[in-house]
Design goal:
Two copies of one chain form a homodimer. Chain A is of the alpha/beta class. Chain A contains 15 helices and nine strands. Chain A has helices at residues 9-17, 20-25, 27-41, 54-58, 80-85, 91-94, 96-108, 120-129, 137-145, 147-171, 188-206, 220-228, 243-247, 269-282, 303-314, and strands at residues 46-47, 63-66, 70-73, 113-118, 175-180, 213-217, 234-237, 255-260, 290-293. Chain A has a seven-stranded parallel β-sheet with strand order 1-4-5-6-7-8-9. A two-stranded antiparallel ribbon of chain A has the order 2-3. Chain A starts with 8 loop residues before the first helix and ends with a helix.
Chain lengths: 316, 316
């Protein structure tokens, strides 16, 4: 959950020299950024430094990151006709920089490396909106105005995502997390039709590789039972649910990951320790529980507080 | 759910002449705006035209509405010291314009009139952030940095809100809806401590009046069982849940209201009819079900589509 990122001064120092996509595209820098939180925090696993939207870079949609704005897609999609003109890129070629970054990480880092990708629905939302959005209105409109067109887009993005995950696995990642950051905008039936269906295709396609797949949605507190029906190795839960209560409703063969409210890191250390221990205590009988935040770290969080959190987990 | 609002050309015509707060403060204009959707749509009840933040106007925090921005609070709250200096206004005096607006509506409108207020947590969020916010970071920080201070603010706002609801009841509203628009930002334990506790105080304080209280949260799909524990007359559900499934988990003596995804109104009429009938059919055995949207109408929705929806409900 952005364990490599702007809250770390050593990341900001690199970011002052290189733009975001240059960092993603340069294997030595990927290894440097990915290892920063490992060195500073001492966490049990590294998550690859990259961005869920690089598949749109591979598809030549004009991805760039603007300061204070976030991702921008210069060539968003407006119609079914435009979707029909999209092609499935050769990710081995266009995203070779990710494979090279993974290999550079593996040489440098001794803990397991987690790769990741965006879920088709979330990536489609960015591609339709042209970037982030307050209400994702164009995407929601598309659901009702042209569901068939949207499915064509999701299906293509799903194929690209599966190719991309396989590329990461071949390069050496030891687990893969799928991020569906905007799934919470969907009503339950919409979630099943436009998100879950494609998550299932990804989980099923990757199952033969033996690499554990972790599913995260914003809204996974609410959609946990549907996600569990796909039988992924693990589900990562956002901060809404009481995880200990939720775990009782879910099959015990699926690991649960999460779900501390990241905003707790704005508190003082004793509050951080108390809230962390409460969560750990609630999950102490759950086999395979993986401590994590329920959402990403924010740029103005204190690195010391993040380390205090990791230390609390380690010492519990 | 904004049945009076910018999607109606007759509302935009008035809004071109008067600013938002002037509309709220002028009884004849309140009656005019409140009646517009009754005349055009033929709905079964009117919801008072007003804004949840007028209590901050009563508390002299410099409330105004800026074009394209929404509500702005010129004097937000930054500290416990500032909270200690806040006072409980005499709403009979400072919000007499709402009472007068209600009386003007009652003279003009023949259907029942629903009053409303913001929940203390949501109103506090606006007061802390100084307006709307993307991530409500200052409010979330306050939860962890100074929960006691936040409780002092919530308790004061709860008292003011109860006074304000009683004022509306005395002026003639026949039901009251409480809007907790930002509750979905809260983790479950936070929701219970910082939102539900105050909703309970409101429901309990208004119970002796005999006026039905309807509770709405963004997140009510997720928090429905906690809301039901307060035994309000009704719960209004956001668009996330499958309402028919959710209704089976809730006590049958509480009416359910909701929860069509408002974005369905961007579709064509046959889709609107189909989705509306699906919802009605799922709720046909639920006594006291109240059809409604799961969130507010948006300014660029077609009035004809909204009317098509109302007609479908009426004819089913």
């Amino acid at each position: 959950m952005r364990q490599a990122g702007r809250y770390l001064p050593q990341f900001r120092a690199l970011r002052a020299k290189y733009d975001f996509l240059t960092l993603c595209r340069t294997p030595e820098l990927v290894a440097e950024v990915t290892s920063q939180p490992i060195d500073y925090l001492g966490v049990d696993a590294a998550i690859l430094f990259c961005d869920i939207l690089v598949v749109l870079d591979a598809m030549d949609r004009g991805l760039h990151f603007d300061k204070g704005v976030g991702p921008v897609i210069d060539r968003p999609i407006h119609s079914s006709e435009e979707i029909a003109q999209l092609h499935r890129p050769d990710v081995a070629d266009s995203l070779s920089y990710v494979a090279d970054g993974i290999k550079a990480c593996k040489e440098r880092i001794s803990v397991p490396l987690i790769g990741f990708c965006g879920a088709p629905f979330t990536v489609a939302s960015y591609l339709i909106e042209g970037g982030g959005s307050r209400d994702y209105k164009r995407t929601k409109q598309w659901i009702f105005r042209d569901p068939k067109g949207l499915h064509a887009l999701l299906s293509l993005l799903c194929d690209v995502t599966i190719d991309y995950c396989k590329l990461q696995i071949e390069a050496g990642v030891q687990a893969l997390q799928v991020f569906d950051s905007w799934a919470h905008l969907l009503a339950q039936a919409q979630f099943e039709e436009f998100s879950l269906h494609y998550l299932k295709r990804i989980v099923d396609a990757l199952r033969p590789t033996g690499i554990p797949v972790i599913l995260f949605c914003r809204g996974s507190s609410f959609f946990a039972e549907q996600l569990a029906s796909l039988q992924p190795a693990a589900i990562s839960i956002d901060w809404s649910a009481d995880l200990s209560q939720l775990s009782r409703k879910l099959p015990s063969n699926i690991a649960l990951q999460g779900n501390l409210d990241p905003d707790i890191l704005y508190a003082d250390k004793s509050t951080i320790e108390r809230e962390c221990k409460k969560l750990l205590n609630g999950m102490k009988d759950h086999p395979g529980y993986i401590f994590n935040l329920g959402h990403g770290l924010k740029p103005d969080m204190e690195p010391e507080n993040v380390r205090c959190l990791v230390d609390t987990v380690r010492n519990s």
